[in-house]
Write a structure and sequence with these properties.
By secondary structure, the chain is mainly α. It has 4 helices and no strands.
């Protein structure tokens, strides 16, 4: 297989991310319904919790698929591990953010510390991703970092 250039990888990853964004958009509406249902109900209604779990599984599958596409673009095992860890962390932060907001709204504003801890995790995660991207560039200079995959870098 021919090795892709950095620009080709940026284009391919961006196109894949846009397809996944459409799928994730369709999952977002039922996720919002189930999350609001949990927040507004007097108890932890099992149907709403099950709905949230199914939506999170679907989100996880879309993150997994996007991860597979990106890891297949590099032959370096170390780079593949970094990409997988980074994308897994992003999914974890996504889940943590949803749960933090839902729990804070459900339990009351006395639990705002949950949102503060989540904000701290987001900041530490941002710094960690930057470091992982530096390591990724050292292993495979042709692979774009997370912050290079955006519309203004796409050239078709």
């Amino acid at each position: 297989m021919r090795q892709m250039t950095k620009q080709e990888r940026i284009n391919a990853i961006y196109k894949s991310n846009m397809k996944m964004a459409v799928l994730q958009g369709f999952i977002t509406f039922p996720m919002m319904f189930f999350t609001v249902g949990v927040i507004r109900s007097d108890s932890w209604n099992g149907w709403y919790v099950l709905g949230i779990a199914v939506c999170l599984l679907l989100f996880g599958a879309s993150f997994f698929k996007a991860n597979q596409i990106e890891t297949n673009m590099t032959e370096h095992e170390g780079a593949q591990r970094i990409i997988t860890r980074r994308n897994g962390f992003l999914f974890g932060v996504f889940v943590l953010s949803i749960l933090a907001v839902a729990l804070t709204l459900k339990l009351g504003w006395a639990y705002v510390w949950i949102l503060i801890v989540t904000g701290g995790v987001l900041y530490v995660g941002y710094r960690w991703i930057r470091r992982q991207d530096e390591r990724l560039s050292a292993i495979d200079p042709e692979h774009p970092n997370l912050f290079e995959v955006r519309l203004d870098h796409v050239k078709d």
